[in-house]
């Protein structure tokens, strides 16, 4: 008898369980994932419950590399209360955020785990369009979206708040287009043609088309924009033509040249080594070929000592915009770290940090002093 009762009640119980346990499939944001740092080629789309990602050492998804990609999230945000909302994004590298078609954060540049904040007034119960654009340049990517609701301002203080959770986010795909019945074409009787007198053809000599000059390249990606905007720091002067050293008139001494050791020896935890021969283009983070020998030496050192872990530090002088100096130092450090990873060093053994002009080795009064402060170094950790 009990078994019979259970069989009768099973459909009702199952329906109740389904109603309680099944999450709303529309919760979250739609993410469109692209190759390239400026939405070059769409690879896939998916629904992400929220934005809380750290892709260090891994790819966001199949078909994307671990670097040089961009993502656009779209959906709807429901406001639980009326008042001012504060949104904070922790990002590496660039981000833009719109809430209700109002851009509240615009940091479409290269950054290394920096937070950006924007605020907007929302009304309780209303839903607002939410859009987040993001790109990652080199090495690891990271993006986290926090918010502070109106009733949390006093307790939050300077805290970014909490991760924006799926219960306030929704995405519903657009309804399929309605099929339209084809309209039968109206057949009309063609009008009578008037035949004009035929003149003999005139031979025309076609002038050659003028040579079209391609339009000047615009900064279509954050990386292009970064490298084309002059920055205030100068690591090493770059010249359009390599200088050619003239041979000395004096006869050189005949002796065995000093050979630099192939690796860095006797490295201790906490020790810092300046890479004196790692050079960049002036005010850019483009490695000069003269840097490769010393970087290869560091690669060999890391391969010979598998337990060794290092932090690459980038430094500038204090001349010019300190924000740009900070960014430049971060990306010079990232370029060096990326070189090591591309030559077989596991990315978990290398990390990169930029210090701008905050850690000078010298004063900054003269160019000779500033040259010493502009450097890349590594520290064992």
Can you describe this structure in just a few lines?
19% of the residues lie in helices and 26% in strands. By secondary structure, the protein is of the alpha+beta class.
List the helices and strands and how they pair.
Elements: H1 2-21, E1 29-35, E2 41-48, E3 52-54, E4 69-78, E5 83-92, E6 94-99, E7 102-107, E8 114-122, E9 127-136, E10 142-148, H2 153-156, E11 162-163, E12 169-170, H3 222-228, E13 272-274, H4 292-304, E14 310-315, H5 322-342, E15 350-354, H6 367-373, E16 375-380
Parallel strand pairs: 14-15
Antiparallel strand pairs: 1-2, 1-4, 3-10, 4-9, 4-12, 5-8, 5-10, 6-7, 6-9, 10-11, 13-16, 14-16
Q: What's the average pLDDT?
A: 78
How many E-type strands? Answer: 16
- SS field, number of helical segments: 6
Strand content: 25-35%
Indicate the radius of gyration in whole angstroms. Answer: 31 Å
Keywords: Cell outer membrane, Membrane, Signal
Pfam families: OmpA, PA14
Domain PA14: 24-161
Biased composition (Low complexity): 214-229
Q: In words, what does this structure look like?
A:
This protein has 381 residues and is α+β, with helices and mostly antiparallel strands. Among the domains are: 142 residues, Sandwich (Jelly Rolls); 118 residues, 60s Ribosomal Protein L30, Chain: A (2-Layer Sandwich), CATH 3.30.1330.60. The protein has six helices and 16 strands. The strands form three sheets. Strands 1, 2, 4, 6, 7, 9 and 12 form a seven-stranded antiparallel beta sheet that branches. Strand 14, helix 5 and strand 15 form a beta-alpha-beta unit. The radius of gyration is 31 Å and the shape is elongated. The termini are far apart. About 23% of the residues have low confidence.
